[in-house]
Design a protein that fits this description.
Protein name: ATP-grasp domain-containing protein
CATH superfamily of the largest domain: ATP-grasp fold, B domain
Keywords: ATP-binding, Ligase, Nucleotide-binding
CATH class of the largest domain: Alpha Beta
CATH architecture of the largest domain: 2-Layer Sandwich
Distance between the termini: 30 Å
Number of strands: 15
InterPro entries: ATP-dep_AA_Ligase, ATP-grasp, ATP-grasp_PylC-type, ATP_grasp_subdomain_1, PylC_N
Order of helices and strands: EHEEHEHHEHHEHEEHEEEEHEEHHE
Largest sheet: 6 strands, antiparallel
Oligomer: single chain
Pfam families: ATP-grasp_3, PylC-like_N
GO molecular function: ATP binding; ligase activity; metal ion binding
Radius of gyration: 20 Å
């Protein structure tokens, strides 16, 4: 029996539904959240209300659920919890549960934007320039290496929070004077894309890539998108992912500028736009279940239709 635990399910109803379909009677999907008003928990076979992730004893509670429910694999749908899973991988393995998340080193790089910038640069992948030192940034502007506008954002963080565009030095100074831990990032004026990528947890091979052209964003998430393919991009993503050492499910943001691809950010989890991939036949939850059964996956890169449009809309649950 394969039992899946989805942590902090929140409003991600579709992901819970997909895992139930992927299991097809082989086991159960158990969901958790700290709120009884998280609709996704009611889509699961079972749910457990848990403390907030920041409360003492949270990890022990999750490990207790894994033991009692005989959980085979555990994943989270929120960023702050991914480090918790990665950092405590051995504790989960001790109770027979596989954390479906990249290793702690890769997760840490993903959540520190300057570290990701340095990793891309060291491996030879194009990415927008980033600066922690304002003087270094101003010097680059004076030398004509880049121009305004630029983004001023927290060096660590997620969900596009506290990101501001600065059109001049005065604005950069004002923003950086208000808080510490900020970074200045080059504005990439090009078409944005997103890639849902699955790296087989057993073989380490990239077995699935789904690319979407982002047509509209809302609150940091893809609101409307179109399925897209390019062999050159598939090769770039495969090379990047293997050199970075990722495993499991990741979501990559990229830009295309004048025919050149730039890597922007990586989220080591299911991205908010993953339902687009599922609707186009890219069934990552089925691949995860196969891995948990001890089977490697056959690569299916680019095995989906082009030009399929995803349009998000609101639904409600009444209980």
């Amino acid at each position: 029996m394969i039992n899946i635990l989805i942590l902090s399910a929140g409003t991600r109803d579709k992901v819970v539904q997909y895992f139930k379909e992927a299991l097809a009677g082989k086991g159960k999907v158990i969901a958790t959240d700290c709120s009884p008003y998280a609709p996704a928990i009611y889509e699961a076979d079972e749910y457990v209300l848990v403390p907030r992730i920041t409360e003492p004893g949270y990890l022990d509670k999750i490990l207790e659920i894994c033991r009692e429910k005989q959980i085979t694999g555990v994943l989270s749908l929120i960023d702050p919890e991914l480090s918790l899973l990665a950092d405590n991988k051995e504790r989960f393995l001790e109770v027979g549960t596989v954390p479906i998340v990249p290793d702690a080193k890769q997760v840490d790089i993903c959540f520190h934007k300057y570290a990701m910038y340095e990793a891309c640069k060291a491996l030879g992948f194009a990415t927008g320039r980033c600066f922690l030192d304002r003087k270094e940034f101003y010097h680059a502007v004076e030398n004509g290496e880049l121009t305004y506008p630029v983004f001023v954002k927290p060096e660590s963080g997620s969900a596009s929070l506290d990101i501001h565009m600065a059109q001049d030095q005065e604005t950069v100074e004002f923003l950086c004077s208000r808080e510490d831990g900020l970074m200045i990032q080059e504005f990439m004026n090009g078409q944005e894309y997103g890639a849902d990528v699955y790296i087989d947890m057993l073989s380490g091979e990239v077995v699935s890539i789904f690319v979407k052209k982002k047509l509209k964003m809302r609150a940091g998430e893809t609101d409307k998108a179109e399925s897209f393919q390019e062999e050159k991009l598939f090769a770039l993503i495969t090379d990047f992912v293997k050199k970075m050492g990722f495993r499991g499910i990741i979501d990559i943001d990229l830009f295309e500028i004048d025919g050149k691809w730039y890597i922007s950010e990586v989220n080591p989890r299911f991205g908010g736009g993953y339902p687009h991939a599922w609707a186009c036949g890219v069934r990552v939850p089925e691949m995860i279940v196969r891995n948990l059964e001890g089977q490697t996956n056959v690569p299916e890169i680019g095995n989906y239709p082009v030009g399929k449009i995803m349009m998000k809309y609101n639904e409600i649950m009444v209980r």
